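INFO  loader      accepted 1 record
INFO  loader      residues=137
INFO  predictor   begin
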Amino acid sequence: MDGSKYAMDALSLICKIKEPHDKITIIICEQDNINACDLKEIVEYELGEKEEEENSTIKILPSEDGRRAADIIREYIVEECESYIDYVFIGNNGADFSSNEEENYLGSVANEIIRNTKVNVMFVGNKTKTYGNEVIP
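INFO  predictor   done
INFO  writer      dumping tokens
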């Protein structure tokens, strides 16, 4: 969770489609450009609004000198919880490999997870899809 619109959309989507017994773990990795404590408060508020705070855990991973957030998150997923994850939801700017525009490629965290773990990944991005009468960002 980096607090971006797409990450918040991913959180909203998982809250919307999960079953009552499903658990949510939100991963925040400390970074120079992210205030992890403020972001945790925002996420807690959103979870409270969706009445999901009882079913959710927010994990703040400490930064490490010389290591990318993507590597830290991937290692956490593989070492701590890969065996019981059904899906990882990732807010992403887009995954359109049909164009050569750089902004449409997967971000570093998305790349690390999809290429180096065995978990199912759902991307939530900048294109809105309509399913039946429901609009899903």
